[in-house]
């Protein structure tokens, strides 16, 4: 019993410990953004909602705390969220904006898809890594994704840090999301590749330049088919364009990448996974891509 209590306390304290460490190092990390060698040609793109504005600095600082850092970080937000950021006057964000490492671009909020669709249009010649706004990423995170990308560059592969595996019934029908193989294990020194891998944005996903079809950014389509399931929409679009998926050689571990506590913020996980909305949206996309684009999955 005592051991279980200790484990729960340790797990609960983990994000706070990491967040505190980042705040202590913030000056060093801002200087790093200004002077450290960046990985040219790769940007990190994400979005945020007003309820999470106060925690944005932790996600951004965690990326800067990495063994390698991207060319830049671009945050796509609605007018309402951008106003909240201005009102907050966060010193970390302001300094990163001042040196030009962080960009905040005001766009129409189209849900979680906002994290990728605008970056595809704004940076067609660059690889785009999408991530979530409520995760403290570990130091190896960006390096692992970047390293795998360079290993498979030119092979039409989308790179993921975390992925599930789509599973099938004997008759070929896809099983419900709850029955998929979760957290496909990474095998160090051995490539994990497959069209049945299903990347999740939480762990970070890299889309090479030109890897996604124009359909990806068609708001009317994904709003009708997968309004809350960007991972599903991006998966089908990637397959439509002939992509395969691959994992990094570093295992994704929740303890290394804890969620930032925010009890006011809505979480799509409970709607999509807990409420089985993933299955509904997946089925709609599957039917659409089969009927309109002859894509069999």
UniProtKB/TrEMBL annotation:
Protein name as catalogued: Glycosyltransferase
Source superkingdom: Bacteria
Annotated organism of origin: Neolewinella agarilytica
């Amino acid at each position: 019993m005592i051991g279980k209590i200790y484990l729960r306390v340790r797990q609960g304290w983990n994000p706070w410990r990491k967040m505190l460490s980042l705040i202590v190092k913030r000056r060093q990390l801002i200087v790093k953004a200004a002077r450290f060698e960046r990985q040219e040609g790769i940007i990190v793109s994400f979005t945020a909602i007003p309820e999470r504005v106060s925690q944005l600095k932790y996600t951004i600082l965690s990326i800067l705390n990495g063994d390698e850092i991207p060319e830049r970080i671009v945050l796509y937000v609605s007018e309402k969220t951008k106003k909240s950021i201005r009102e907050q006057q966060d010193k970390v964000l302001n300094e990163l904006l001042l040196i030009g490492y962080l960009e905040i671009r005001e766009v129409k909020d189209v849900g979680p898809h906002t994290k990728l669709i605008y970056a595809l249009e704004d940076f067609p010649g660059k690889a785009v890594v999408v991530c979530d706004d409520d995760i403290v990423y570990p130091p190896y995170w960006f390096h692992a994704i970047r390293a795998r990308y360079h290993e498979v560059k030119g092979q039409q592969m989308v790179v993921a840090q975390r992925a599930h595996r789509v599973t099938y019934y004997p008759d070929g029908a896809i099983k419900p999301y709850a029955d998929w193989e979760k957290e496909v294990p990474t095998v160090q020194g051995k490539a994990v590749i497959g069209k049945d891998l299903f990347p999740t944005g939480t762990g970070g996903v890299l889309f090479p330049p030109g890897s996604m079809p124009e359909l990806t950014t068609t708001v009317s389509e994904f709003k009708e088919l997968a309004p809350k399931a960007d991972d599903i929409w991006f998966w089908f679009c990637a397959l439509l364009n002939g992509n395969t998926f691959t994992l990094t050689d570093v295992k994704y571990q929740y303890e290394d990448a804890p969620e930032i506590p925010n009890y006011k913020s809505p979480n799509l996980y409970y709607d999509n996974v807990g409420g089985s909305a993933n299955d509904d949206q997946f089925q709609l996309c599957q039917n659409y891509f089969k009927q309109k684009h002859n894509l069999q999955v």
